[in-house]
Design brief:
alpha+beta; Outer Surface Protein A, domain 3; Serine Threonine Protein Phosphatase 5, Tetratricopeptide repeat; 15-stranded mixed sheet; two-stranded antiparallel ribbon
Length: about 300
């Protein structure tokens, strides 16, 4: 059975009419009341922009917001939906861009962020995932590029950014093994650490150093490439990568590589210097392999 259009219009008009204009209410001691009333207001309400378009809707119970609170922009698009309990955000919360796509979503627990929250790009892609406990950022944090690549990963403890305990334990053990020149064992632990968090430039740098010490210069160069990709101003990585490029020739008995063979390494050395590298080692490599008489 179809409801006649006139009846639909009448029902909508009654619904709108039943909502109290927020301008007819006032907040007294934290609770909303009708102007002139002594008791707190209970019932649905609506608020408007100056041009008469709806800005938001909701409901009061005993003068406090209760249930679903919806906000709109002047074009009539929903910009946020939040659940309330006794005047506090409590439950699912979602905000939208003007194009209607989600901007961020998560849960509140009595006024404080709690659990997993997702942030989005205006195009719709996931921008970041973060976790809260009782209003404080706590736990895993992941950040993504617009094309979906993981670009940053942290672990928050009481609001402070760091790395997960397991990641830190693995890298600490690997560093100790590398100091003992147990490079293969150290590399195996760095492999595990990087699998847990593939966004830490220093982990690639350290693994690259271990590979270089184990005469795997090609593997070292790949790790330095990744470290520089993650941290473009990584001065030490440029210097080490230059050394690894030279060593690919000298370790095979070619003690006098050509200028063409050393060109890429020299670019790395000069880049390291431009970033502040004043070490004797880098200066010596430039003198030995990058001066004009060798070109």
């Amino acid at each position: 059975m179809k409801i006649p259009f006139t009846l639909l219009a009448f029902l909508f008009a009654c619904f709108t009419f039943g909502q109290t204009n927020l301008n007819d209410l006032e907040r007294v001691d934290g609770r909303w009341k009708k102007k002139g009333d002594s008791t707190s207001f209970t019932g649905p309400f609506v608020e408007y922009f100056d041009n008469g378009k709806i800005k938001g809707t909701g409901e009061f119970r005993d003068g406090l917001v209760e249930g679903n609170r919806i906000m709109y922009n002047e074009q009539g698009t929903v910009v946020s939906e939040k659940k309330f309990t006794a005047g506090q955000t409590n439950g699912r919360s979602i905000e939208y861009f003007d194009n209607g796509k989600p901007k961020q979503e998560g849960q509140f627990r009595y006024g404080k962020e709690h659990g997993t929250w997702n942030l989005f790009y205006e195009t719709g892609g996931l921008r970041a995932t973060l976790n809260f406990f009782n209003g404080t950022q706590d736990g895993d944090y992941y950040e993504y590029s617009e094309d979906g690549l993981l670009t940053a990963q942290y672990y928050f403890t009481d609001g402070e950014a760091g790395y997960s305990p397991q990641f830190m334990d693995l890298t600490k053990q690997a560093e100790e093994l590398s100091r003992q020149l147990r490079n293969k064992e150290a590399i195996a632990l760095y492999d595990k650490a990087i699998w847990l968090n593939p966004t830490v430039a220093q982990a690639y740098f350290n693994r690259g150093a271990c590979k270089g010490n184990d005469f795997d210069f090609a593997g070292a160069i790949k790790d330095y490439d990744k470290a520089i990709e993650l941290k473009p101003d990584y001065m030490e990585a440029y210097g080490n990568r230059g050394n690894a490029k030279i060593n690919t020739y000298t370790a095979n008995g070619n003690t006098k590589p050509t200028a063409e063979q050393t060109a890429s390494a020299c670019e790395d050395f000069h880049k390291a210097v431009s970033l502040g590298d004043k070490s004797i080692g880098t200066a010596d490599m430039i003198y030995l392999y990058c001066n004009k008489k060798n070109k």
